[in-house]
Amino acid sequence: MTVIEIEGLRKSYRAVRAVEDVSLTVERGEIFGIAGPNGAGKTTVVECASGLRDRDGGTLRVLGLDPRTDRRALLQRVGAQLQEAALPDAIKVDEALRMYASFYDEPADWRTLMDEWGLTAKRRHGFASLSGGWKQRLFIALALVGDPEVVFLDELTTGLDPAARRTTWGLIRAMRERGVTVVLVTHFMDEAEALCDRLAVIDRGRVIAAGTPCELIAQGRSGSLDEAYFALTRGDGA
Ligand SMILES: Nc1ncnc2c1ncn2[C@@H]1O[C@H](COP(=O)(O)OP(=O)(O)O)[C@@H](O)[C@H]1O
Ligand SMILES: [Mg+2]
User: Fold this and answer.
1) 124 CB neighbour count, 10 Å cutoff
2) Which regions of the chain carry the CATH code 3.40.50.300?
3) Which CATH class is domain 1-77+149-212?
4) Which pLDDT tens digit goes with each residue over 63-96?
5) Phi, psi of 35 (to 5 degrees)
6) What is the residue with the minimal CA distance to atom 7 of ligand 1?
7) Which of 65, 100, 101, 230 could bridge to 70 as Cys pair (CB 3.0-4.6 Å)?
8) What is the whole-number distance in angstroms between the Cα of residue 201 and the centre of ligand 2?
9) Is the CB of 43 under 6 A from ligand 1?
């Protein structure tokens, strides 16, 4: 079953054409990657799909809902960890979870989530005192607190040390095992290769390649996804 259908998406910020023409589909239960250089339009695509930003053109359906007309229903069924997400410095882990749970009609049990994601020992810690890895763990838990069917994760592991990245990969796999569809924006091809069932590479607001990691490697006539990505985004790929 297709859970996300994007066709001909367009979005500009005044003179900046952030998304020129993006089409892609995401199937239920996938980890779907979105890769591409800085400024390619990845975050804009995710914000439009998750109902946080209106589009200029194209069609968009998430769980059969149009974020433009069914925004409220959609926000109840998707979760998002956004790039450069922040919380007030002093908010405690448990307060943040309880507050986010209050945004949803049928939230998950935030105490259970806190336990499952290993946050209980940190429950009285203020946001600012958490290390990068613990902040990411909290953001994942917050993205799941509405018991969503689809989760958008935007550069979740950027800035994490290698050990914390690996831990986060395990957490992302655990999400999929619960049946959540995951859209993962990432810069890292090792991450895409390890986690993603399929991915789209976006450059200058357009999808320049899409497929399984194996398909992209073949398409880039490369030995690895990293090489394929490099060839594609330099414009000398297939
Ligand atoms: N709120 C905004 N106002 C103006 N320009 C923006 C805004 N958000 C993004 N842009 C611009 O749109 C383009 C795409 O940005 P973005 O979607 O954040 O790309 P990515 O996530 O791939 O780095 C970039 O040129 C960026 O500078
Ligand atoms: Mg971005």
Assistant:
1) 9
2) 1-77+149-212
3) alpha beta
4) 999 999 999 999 999 999 877 678 999 999 999 9
5) -120, 165
6) 13
7) 65
8) 13
9) yes
